Amino acid sequence: MEYIPVLILMAVGVTVGTAIVVLSGLIGPKLQNKKKDQAFECGVPAYGDAKHRFSVRFYLVAILFLLFDVEAIFFFPFALIYREFLSINSFILIEMGVFVAILLVGYLYVRKKGALEWE
What we know:
mainly alpha; 2 domains; flat; about 70% helix
């Protein structure tokens, strides 16, 4: 009984979404020409083949950036409560030191493997 409002909201959302897609397909313009069917991005006309391969290093650097960026997010809560809880005990400071040490070991490993070097 208590989930009925949620189910109603989901039904309304699905109905509205489906109605928009169906009505835009039925009512929307269907004018096609060669110029409109070409790929267009950022105001620059397309050139060359869009199916070229990227180096694996590009993806590796992107994943490493996300990994270290997400880990850096954990510094913000620590910075907010640092003064308040440091006077109570130093456990938080020790835990943050262990966290930074793990980050440093991971960074040194990645650097030693040469994952951040561009060729």
